[in-house]
Write a structure and sequence with these properties.
174 residues; Rossmann fold; 7 helices; globular; LRR_FXL15/At3g58940/PEG3-like; F-box_dom-containing
């Protein structure tokens, strides 16, 4: 366990079953994370998506249940595996104040299409009544590495949150 970590950034291949199955175990190693940045990466060799039932059966994850206030989900495509995880997360995170969903530039033909992809999340029973959702388009297209391109900012420990989409969205702060 690493209890001193408050901000965590991870890449997950939700279409690779074993990769996505590691996420709960990994999150359990960081019980005090308050800000979670997840990047959903596309793969051309999917091995199966995890259903919502998998996430329901994961069991308690301390940081999700009692600490995470902000989650930024990059690379959203509206795939079943992503939606299953996000629905689980919304139903399990009572401290969550803001969920920011960032889709890659050009992923959807319009904001209306992007909005339609997140609609299933609103049928969930959210653990936090005060949570707001922000849907944004990234300045980057799929395949452009926003964190690597902005390595200098990402490794600057004087910043409040080195991952906060400075490269992805032109310096926005939540």
């Amino acid at each position: 366990m690493v209890p001193s970590v408050k901000i965590l950034g991870l890449r997950v291949y939700f279409a690779i079953r074993d990769n996505a199955k590691m996420l709960p175990s990994f999150l359990r190693c960081f019980p005090n994370v308050e800000t979670l940045h997840l990047e959903s990466k596309e793969t051309y060799q999917p091995t199966g998506k995890l259903s919502y039932k998998f996430w329901q059966e994961v069991g308690p994850i301390k940081c999700v249940q009692s600490h995470i206030k902000l989650m930024v989900f990059y690379g959203f495509r509206g795939e079943r595996g992503e939606l299953s995880f996000l629905k689980y997360f919304l139903e399990s995170a009572p401290m969550l104040a803001k969920l920011v969903i960032v889709y890659n530039k050009g992923s959807f033909t319009s904001l209306t299409e992007a909005n339609s992809k997140v609609q299933p999340l609103f049928s969930a029973k959210w653990a936090s009544q005060d949570c707001s959702v922000l849907l944004l388009e990234s300045a980057f297209q799929e395949g452009e590495d926003k964190w690597l391109l902005n390595f200098k900012t990402g490794s600057d420990f004087s910043t409040r949150d080195p991952f906060v989409c400075a490269a992805a969205l032109g310096g926005c702060h939540f």
